[in-house]
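Prompt: I keep going back and forth on a fold encoding question. Comparing notes only helps if you start from a blank page. Show me how you would write down a chain together with its backbone fold. Please set it down just below, with no commentary around it:
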Amino acid sequence: MNGAGTSLKESRLSRLLYPAVLVLIFVAPSQRAYAIHPRYGPFISPADVLLVMLAAVWLLGVIQSRRFGQIRWGPQAAWALLVVAILSATKAVDVKSALVEAVQIGLYFIAAFVLFVDILRRRHQVHTTVDVLAAATSLIVLWGLVEYLTEPDPMKVGATFGNRNVYSGYLAIVLPLLYGLSLHVSARWRRLWWLGLVAVGLATMLSGPLVWCVLATLIAISAGHNRLALLRCLAAVAVFVALMPFVFPRNYAAAVEELRNPYEEDEVYKVAAGSDETAVKVVKKRWLEWQPALNMMTDNPLLGVGAANYQLRIGEYYGLLPNVRKTEDDTNNLYLVIGGSMGLAGIVSLVALLAYFWRLASGLWLRVEDDWGRGLAAGLMGSIGALVVGNFFTSSFVRGIGLIMVLVFALVETTARRRGFPPDSGND
């Protein structure tokens, strides 16, 4: 009787939290937030507040039902990253920022992950989750399209995000997932919706490296499907690239011209030379900063300079390199940021975390039993791959992307644990 009562309480709690989790997923992709300090933060988004509330209710329910042994409490690498972030605070100049960063890591990689995995258990729930994510992305891409057509500054084509790099980083995670599913779903309207979203999303991405990252991921997903899908994808990519200079000049400027020119332009060279008469070529700050980031990690090998202290300290490690302008927002290499701020312990934990989900995602196709499961497996693997590569050019651990990244991790975990949601498990 007690077991039945506990199960009933758990079922009621899950039914209560499930729609709230869908709301969380819908509002998560946005950088709009309340800033306690306009420059130093911390920044608190509506999604963060909702996540804390849901996690607290969920935890109370778990305590009441005493089902601790049934919970997947997150991979060891996530806990290791949290511990390293806390320990790195001992090295921080700004201890408050380091502790806030540690709280955010715990909130996303532990609390959100556990919540998603425990609530999104059923096949129909994962179906609905993908639809909600696609609906949110549709609104975001529509907003991005309006800005693409009307905003002269490419940096401001960011929709609900702060700039083009975070916007593109978000799409780099979501578009491969929707594309993988679109190759397998039977519903024609869903397939057209998701493929259209992929096409328009790609056209509005103005972060050059991430455009190529997504294109390569789509080709890889197609190659894993069949030869016809690969040929169609290659043809579509070839047409898009060929038309860039003529139909998509803004995309061409970002994805080709900016990338092939490694040097700063305009007035920066004059500042570096110290004279208006001498032109000195200066490597763009996004690439130049890789060297001082390595210097920071070399000087602070174990725990770095403290979580969230990277930007505060990076200027000290340039040495003889020209440090003539502010880096374009959100163009830092995440691996070097973690390595510099949390040392080798931090970067090993992060790589171990990504490797864990990559390994799970790469084996999902062995666990699925129908077309939808195969699409989900292909899409999730593409998302993880794009995430791993994209983090060389931006950071996915920022407001607006962080929770969606964790959602992808949770879907990989859930699909692996439920053995791909076999067709007869939809109502279990």
Summary: The radius of gyration is 22 Å.
